[in-house]
Amino acid sequence: MSSTLDSIATGSAVGSLIPLLTAIVQRPTWSVATKKVVATVVALLGGVITVVSVDGLDLFEHGLPTLGTLAAVLAASQATYDLVWKPSKVAPAIESVTSPGQAG
Which pTM value belongs to this model? Predict the structure, then answer.
């Protein structure tokens, strides 16, 4: 059980930084729907990497703890984007600076 809690806690920490990584690949000109898909895919990939790095491939044998970690990463990424990174304009600034022809 401790391993599951460690994985979920680590997932939450990772998820809080995912919006900054997502902002590097996203473009201001993309539709809202495209941005949501990219953010979700990046968060889920971050969740898979978190599961593997914390518990190794063995955790994938247990669906519920893996799902919990993936959900923690996704929830933390969405929450921190909406509550911290978007209002502070950090994520949108990264998005603009890393977009070809947008820096300026």
Answer: 0.84
